[in-house]
Amino acid sequence: MEDFEVIIIGLGAMGSAASYHLARRGQKALGLDRFKPPHAVGSSHGRTRIIREAYFEHPLYVPLAQRAYDLWAALERESGRSLFRQTGGLMIGRPDSVIIRGAKRSAEEHHLRYELIGAGEVRRRFPALQPADEMVAVWEPRAGILFPEACIEAHITLARRQGAEMHFDEPGLRWQPEGEGVRVVTSKAEYRASRLVLAAGSWIKTLLPDLKLPFAVERQIQFWFEPKSGPRFEPGRCPIHIWEHEPGRYFYGFPDLGDGVKVAGHHEGEITDPDSVNREVAPGEVEAMRALVRKFLPEADGPLRSAVVCMYTNTPDGHFFIDRHPALPQVLIASPCSGHGFKFSSGIGEILAELITTGTTRFDLSLFRNRRFESR
Ligand SMILES: Cc1cc2nc3c(=O)[nH]c(=O)nc-3n(C[C@H](O)[C@H](O)[C@H](O)COP(=O)(O)OP(=O)(O)OC[C@H]3O[C@@H](n4cnc5c(N)ncnc54)[C@H](O)[C@@H]3O)c2cc1C
Description:
This protein is of the alpha+beta class. The protein contains eight helices and 20 strands. It binds flavin-adenine dinucleotide (FAD).
């Protein structure tokens, strides 16, 4: 049986980044994935992900986002690949909405550059976007787009170059503690390691059958519409945009990078199972998305180019789960999703590697701990 210092189960956004940072720290690492990442059946496909800094969900995320920006830039340099495109970003809603109040709070607490602009000014500066008169927007200049498949590929390639073993099409079936380490059984072999990182995305509960973690997998659809007037949606004229179009209801969109205008709702999908999720998109689902497009991005109301199903792994409070196994400190559990984790994955990979190699991290992970669920 082969021995490793650390095994990482799941090589999507989080596991590929963790593998890279562990290998860079000289750890003898084995990464395992049930498919061939980057693939299109988990949570990290669809060609684009938003990255932003004035984080309306909570100011605690801002230092994580800032570290992630630096690490994406470093990864671009090291891999020689284009992973990020800056477009600026607009958070749009009514003045008292969660998105506006939250983005302003994060920007002010962390002294970020931002502007609060009225609906008329948004329509004038970014004519693709047509907010209602009573809406306002927080403009943040550093926001932009990550290319998720390329990010994962870069992390995997460079992890391998640093000496990590990466096995595809080899699902981890189960694991158990062995002394102070772990033994992992896969479809092909058994391995031993001192530490284990579980980063299996929407499948993570299958690897933790004894823990009652309150994760729910949610079906989400990404749509691409043909714009009626292309230039308005060019990246130079159209930033990334997130809308709280009604209290607590969100959708978001991207400029047209040549494959149409991508838009998607945020939450409101059906709760599902990762092995039986419905990957067909019904005409009624297209019409529901189109109704929002007509209202707020009317020039994107052309033919549907494509629609792809993806999965969120949600916690009840929408914050990530990053913590040690409650009974086994040699096991780290990382489920940074709830629909907003990709941007942080470079930084979370580094945090997981720090936790494995030094036992601590300089980042405040208090929002992400298991103890918030323990009294449930
Ligand atoms: C439609 C959509 C839009 C999103 N938009 C944004 C956005 O704009 N910005 C943002 O920051 N975030 C966004 N997110 C969230 C972000 O994409 C996720 O937080 C992130 O992809 C989660 O990464 P992960 O590594 O946990 O999961 P994944 O990338 O899915 O990786 C999990 C991996 O584990 C593997 N695996 C599972 N079980 C096993 C097993 N037993 N053995 C071996 N391997 C296994 C899987 O094959 C997979 O490769 C979005 C998510 C979706 C679905």
